[in-house]
Every structure is written in C-alpha cells, then in structure tokens.
Design a protein that fits this description.
CATH architecture of the largest domain in chain B: Up-down Bundle
Helix content of chain A: 55-70%
Function (chain A): Part of the Sec protein translocase complex. Interacts with the SecYEG preprotein conducting channel. SecDF uses the proton motive force (PMF) to complete protein translocation after the ATP-dependent function of SecA.
CATH topology of the largest domain in chain A: Multidrug efflux transporter AcrB transmembrane fold
Family (chain A): Belongs to the SecD/SecF family. SecD subfamily.
CATH architecture of the largest domain in chain A: Up-down Bundle
Shape of chain B: elongated
Radius of gyration of chain B: 24 Å
Pfam family, one (chain A): SecDF_P1_head
Number of helices of chain B: 9
Order of helices and strands of chain A: HEHEHEEHEEEEHEEEHEHEHHH
Distance between the termini of chain A: 30 Å
Number of helices of chain A: 10
Strand order of the largest sheet of chain B: 3-4-2-5
Largest interface: A-B, 70 and 74 residues
CATH superfamily of the largest domain in chain A: Multidrug efflux transporter AcrB transmembrane domain
CATH topology of the largest domain in chain B: Multidrug efflux transporter AcrB transmembrane fold
Structural class of chain A: alpha+beta
InterPro entries (chain A): Acrflvin-R, SecD, SecD/SecF_arch_bac, SecD_1st, SecD_SecF_C, SecD_SecF_C_bact, SecDF_P1_head
CATH class of the largest domain in chain A: Mainly Alpha
GO molecular function (chain A): protein-transporting ATPase activity
Strand content of chain B: 5-15%
Oligomer: heterodimer
Number of domains of chain B: 2
Helix content of chain B: 55-70%
Radius of gyration of chain A: 32 Å
CATH superfamily of the largest domain in chain B: Multidrug efflux transporter AcrB transmembrane domain
Strand order of the largest sheet of chain A: 3-4-2-12
Shape of chain A: elongated
Chain lengths: ~425, ~300
C-alpha cells in the first residue's frame, strides 16, 4: 500500500508541476525564425583594405558590433555567432521592420575623417584622411568639458598618424563622415599627439551619446558579404508552427493510446514517463536557451520515437519473461536487466551520431543535433530509470499480480 | 498483441530479399548516374522564393509577373495558395525587396514570403559537410559496435545501414523529390534508427549465443531465426509508432518539414526491413565461415 501511495504521490506531484509550469514554459520557449518569421544571414568577412586572412579578434569584434547594431534597432535577442575562420551567422526572429534592420546590419557604416586639403572647393571635403579601421573599436565615449558641456572622445590605433593629420590641418576643419553623411566638421585646434580626438559641438548629452554610438557601430573592422540568406514571413512562420504542433499533438495522443492498449500497466507507467519526458525536455530548452526551430521539432519528435522504443523494449522483455512462466517479480527483475543493455547500446550509438552532427554540422544541422542529444540523455533519465522505479513500486505492492495486467494472456504462458 | 511467425524461416526468406535489395541498389546506382538528385536550394546556388497568398492568384498571371520581373532564369511550381519560384541566380537584397513589394501590390498585400538565397560555394560546402558528417558518424558507430559486440556484427550492421541510407537516396532520385538540408537530417536520423534496430536484434543473438549449444550450421540458423522472432513484436511496434508520428508530420506538418518526414517514412521502413532480412542473415553468413575455429567457444558475457 505504501508503495502504491508513493507511486500516486510521484504521479500527482509530477503532473501538478507540469500543469503549473507548462503555460509559462511554453510562453518562454524561444521560437526560431522559421516558426515566427524573421531572417537568417550568413556573412563572409574580408578585411576592409586589400585581401588577406581575417584575424579571429576582428571577426569576434565584428560579430559583437553586429549584435549591438541589431540591439540598437530594438530587436529582441538577436543571435550572432562566428563560424569557421571568416563567417558570421546572424539570426533575427520576429521583427516587424525586417528591411530596415537588414539595411542597418549590412551597411558597412564606414566612418571617415576627411579634409578639404587640396580640394577645389573648401567646403567640399574630398580627401579621406582616416578610415574606420584606424579607430579603436568601441572606444568612442561621452565626456564633459570643464564647462560641463558634453563632448565625444575617440581613440585611434596609431598615434602618429593622427598627429600627422592634425598637424597638417591646424586651423582647418576635419570633417567626420559616416556613410558619406557629414556628422560634424570641427576645426582642429592643435596637434593631437595623445592618440585621441574630441568632437565638440553636441547640444545635449543625448546627442553626444548618439554620435558616440554611431561611431562605435561604424567602426566595423571587416567588410561583409551575404552568402546565404533565409527570410520567412511572419504569417508563414505562424502557419508552420500551428501545422507542426497539430501533427505533433495527433501523433502524441495516438502513441499514448497505443501504449495503454498494448502494454496495460507498463503502458500506463510508460505514458506517465513519456509526458514527464516531454516536460523535462521543455525545461531543458528553457534552461539552455535553446531556440526551437523546425529541425529542432523534427529531432524532438524523433526523441519521442526513441522514448517510446525504450518503453516498448522493456515492456516486451517483461512480457517475454512472463510467458516463460516466471513470476511477476522475477519477470520484472530479469526483464529489466536484459533490456537495460539493449537500450543503453542503442542510445550510445545514437549519441555517437548526434555528437558527430553537433561538431561537424552548421546552422540547422547543429540545431537538430542539440535537441537530439538533449532528448537522448533525458530519455535515459526518464524512460529508463524513472519507468523502472515506478514499475518497481507497482510490482512490489503485490496488488497487480495477474499477467493480464502486463498484456500477457494466461494461455500464452508456458509451464516451467 | 503478439506477432508469432512461429514457423517462418527468416533466414531462408532473406535469400529472396537479398536479391530484391541488390536489384534496388543497382536501380539506385543507375538512377543516380543517369538522373542524379534533384538538388534543392541548400545544395545549389540560387534563390528560392515561396509565396503563400491569402486569396487565389491566377497561375499564368503570376508566371507572367515573374517573367516581367526579369530576374533571370527560373522554374515555377504552384499549389492552391502557394507559389514556389526558383531563380538560378542569387538575388540581392534590393531585388528581393522589389519582388516582394511588386507581388504584394499586384496580387495580394497579405502574401507571406519565405526566401532563401544561397551562394554557390556555401552550397558546395554544406553538401560536403553533410557527407563528412555521415561518414564520421558511420565510422564511430562501427567502432562502437565492434568493441561492444564483435567485428562481424559491426560489418553486417554497417552494410545494413549503408543499404538503408542508399535506398532512401534512391527513392528520392527515382521520384525526383527535392533534396535539401532537412533531407540530410533525415538520412542521419535514419542511420540512427537503423543501427538502433540492428543493435536490438544483435543483442538478442549475442544473448542467445551464451546459452546455446551450437553443433552445426543449422543450429546457428535456428538461433538467428529465434532471435529475430523474439524481437519481432518490438520491431513492428516501434516502427509502427514512429512511422505513425512521421506520417502525421507528413500529412499535417508544414511544407518545410514534409520532405523530412517523407525521407523518414522510407528510412524507417528500410531500417526495419534491413535489420531483419539483411543484417542478421549477413552476420550468419560471416559467422558460419568462421565456424571450424569458433564453434566450440561460447561467447562470453561482456
């Protein structure tokens, strides 16, 4: 009786927890761009000037500033990752102003310091003195003068270059351009030997901060070209999600019914564990910040398949032992022992396949592999260990001793 | 329910199935060398544009529209409220925007787009990557099975899984189904399932070997038959459930997941078939040859 109570307690607590947390969990599951609309771009990076290899540091920096740019556009949780030696993958889900964001991302946002040195018209700044890659990335910030007016300071990588330029231009304007747009054209007061320059003339703190941001974003160390883009309309994504969820729901209901009808008591336990399995998997997604995409859902459904298989292997084995004339307790014991090895072998081969995919695959292949790995591991915890524990409670309670509870007919049992 | 097949000789029946599989494989080689695969956007550079409309749009009008956009060569398929256009060239962003806006203003302002643009070297790389992935996964599985069981099991299981993967590729080549990244995912999953199926039967064979008194080849054959029979209910039930899940995805799931589920459907079927009729008899053939040396030695438990 105690054991049955324990069984009931486990089930009630687990289902209570599931019912309590599920709505929040489902709302907090991050959906990928193929399920709610959005776009994914794979960039290939090249140095701004000339060719040559891309160094790891500047690739990382570029990825970071891409992320900042997306953030600045008010995009929720943009995913920006570097891949290989010279690639950056950007995934942005659920944006309303896709065109704008893409534009902003892709623009090299080239920052230039220009002068009118040697130009025919003194207001036409035709000579480029310094370019974005001359400045330290992300070093522009707002400071205050002694009069408490905001100014923007920027740093250069090569002090002597700035010194040369500023020496030549004392008394003349040095214009700051961003994407060919004149931001400001302060007059150089003195030779700048410290490697930093100040931009004055900002009316408010906000204005100064904006300028600093723009300059920081502008100092992209690399040039980007799009190599792969995927863009999904929001309604299309929504439709995919609904259709796939419907398919999953129908499949789940039928699988649970199948388990109940074919395997009776072990089927009940299996169904309970399958539901817990799905819930833990969702929790894992949430904890690991996994973005659920269509390939992820595919792996998820396959995970359910493997979970069902685990239960079937165990239940079949117990049935076999019962048919051979063993008592319930000993059939349960040897059935568990024998099926354990089979299940573990099958799972490890799957883990090998999934791990290879994870390390070699890119993009959606990787997404698939993450879910596959997570579901195999959680499956071992729930459908191998939890099932056994729950079934153990039922068998040991001594109240369910008829072979028919386990899906075995009396006529099938061979006498020992 | 229990599928007994008490007197069915799986090993004997496998002779016919061997021929069947060889014929299918030859057919596959022929089909692949003549027709090749119908590569989708992921493995061929260009642009694919899927448009879902909220109301009916006339097919010929739409085709004229795409011609009018003059974005180069394209192929065109259409469904109820859906157009799939494949441009041979990679569209740039402004072309893409223009296409979207023009279509919206001309036909349906509620139209929803899915656009994929793939550059040629990325396409090649993705294919290569996927192939390497499969190869390395296979090698890993072989090593594991060889360590856990013995090399004969490893050889037979890998032939079976190569057979499964190849036959699914054959099906896609024969029926001209589009091969995209999800297809590769499906092949990899099929490999996982196929090895899973085979491992379950081999595990039974290994277990039965421990207690068996093998006097001649007939005993060995009977042992394989018994092992297949004992695991048959599990094989059928598992495949039935997963097959059903794939079928649901295929029938109700979204377009992007359809090809994946179709590949899975083929793969599950071949996977179950090959573990029973290819892998197990193959192991038997290999084992029989080694009989004089190994007959007396009983497999020890791991």
């Amino acid at each position: 009786m105690k054991r049955l109570l324990a069984f009931a307690l486990v089930v009630v607590v687990a289902f209570g927890l599931i019912a309590w947390t599920s709505p929040g969990l489902l709302n907090n599951t991050k959906l990928g761009l193929d399920l709610k609309g959005g776009f994914e771009i794979l960039y290939e990076a090249q140095p701004l000037t000339g060719s040559g290899p891309v160094d790891k540091q500047s690739l990382k920096k570029t990825a970071e500033s891409l992320k900042e740019r997306a953030d600045a556009q008010g995009v929720a949780e943009p995913e920006v990752t570097t891949e290989g030696k010279n690639r950056i993958r950007v995934k942005i889900a659920g944006v309303a102003n896709e065109a704008e964001v893409r534009e902003m991302l892709k623009k090299p946002a080239e920052l230039q310091f220009r002068s009118a040195d040697g130009c025919t018209d003194p207001t036409d700044y035709c000579k480029v003195e310094m370019v974005g890659s001359d400045f330290t990335e992300g070093a522009a910030k707002v400071e205050y003068t002694s009069l408490n007016t905001p100014i923007v300071t920027i740093k250069v990588k090569d002090k002597s270059k700035l010194a040369d330029v500023s020496k030549r231009l004392i008394g003349k304007p040095l214009a700051i351009y961003l994407n060919d747009e004149l931001i400001s054209d302060p007059v150089v007061q003195s030779e700048l030997t410290e490697g930093s320059a100040q931009i004055t003339g900002q009316g408010s703190i906000e204005e100064a901060q904006n300028l600093a941001d723009v300059i920081n974003l502008g100092a992209l160390p690399l040039k980007l070209t799009e190599k792969y883009t995927q863009s999904v309309g929001a309604t299309l994504g929504q439709k995919s999600l609904e259709e796939t969820a419907l398919a999953g729901a129908i499949a789940s209901v039928v699988i649970l019914l199948f388990m109940l009808i074919f395997y009776r008591l072990p089927g009940v336990v299996a169904s309970v564990c399958l539901i817990i399995f799905v819930w833990i998997l969702l929790v894992a997604f949430w904890l690991m910040h996994v973005t659920v995409t269509l390939p992820g859902i595919a792996a998820f459904i396959l995970g359910i398949g493997i979970a069902v298989d685990t239960n079937i292997i165990t239940a079949e084995r117990i049935k076999d032992e019962l048919r051979n004339g063993k008592s319930i307790t000993s059939a349960f014991r040897s059935g568990n022992k024998n099926s354990f090895r089979t299940v573990i072998d099958a799972h490890i081969t799957n883990i090998i396949a999934a791990a290879v995919l994870y390390f070699i695959g890119q993009g959606s292949v990787k997404g698939f592999a993450v879910v596959q790995l997570a579901s195999i591991i959680i499956n071992i915890l729930t459908n191998l260990f939890l099932t056994r524990y729950l079934l153990h409670l039922i068998v040991k309670s001594g109240r369910f001793n008829k072979p028919s509870y386990y899906g075995v007919k009396e006529s099938e049992i061979r006498a020992l | 329910m229990r599928y007994s097949f008490r007197n069915f000789d799986f090993v004997k029946a496998s002779k016919g199935f061997f021929i069947f599989s060889i014929v299918l494989t030859l057919l596959g080689i022929a089909s692949l060398s003549i027709f090749g695969l119908n590569y989708g956007i992921d493995f061929q550079s260009g642009s694919s544009v899927d448009i879902t409309t909220s109301k009916h749009v006339d097919k010929t009008q739409a085709e004229d529209f795409f011609k009018g956009e003059s974005l180069g060569e394209f192929t065109f398929t259409t469904g109820d409220d859906r157009f799939s256009v494949r441009f041979k060239d990679a569209l740039d962003e402004s072309q893409q925007l223009k296409l979207e806006n023009d279509f919206k203003s001309k036909f349906d302002d509620k139209a929803s787009f899915e656009i994929n643009i793939v550059d040629v070297d990325i396409a090649k790389e993705q294919e290569r990557n996927a192939l390497y992935g499969m190869l390395i996964a296979c090698i890993g599985i072989v090593i594991y099975v060889a360590i856990r069981f013995e090399w004969r099991f490893a050889v037979s299981s890998v032939i079976a899984l190569a057979h499964d993967a190849f036959l699914v590729i054959t099906m896609f080549s024969l029926f001209r189904l589009e091969v995209n990244l999800p297809f590769i995912l499906a092949i990899l999953t099929i490999i996982g399932y196929s090895i899973n199926d085979t491992v379950v039967i081999f595990d039974r064979i290994r277990e039965n070997l421990r207690f068996a008194k093998i006097k001649g080849p007939d005993d060995l054959k009977e042992l394989v038959n018994t092992s297949v029979r004992q695991t048959l209910t599990r094989s059928i039930n598992t495949v039935a459930t997963v097959l059903f899940a794939s079928l649901c995805l295929f029938a109700f799931g979204s377009i992007s997941i359809k090809m994946f589920s179709l590949a899975m459907l083929f793969g599950l079927f071949f996977g179950a078939y090959s573990s029973i009729f290819i892998a197990s008899p193959l192991w038997l053939m290999l084992r029989k040859r080694a009989k004089p040396k190994k007959a007396v030695k009983v497999q020890s438990a791991p």
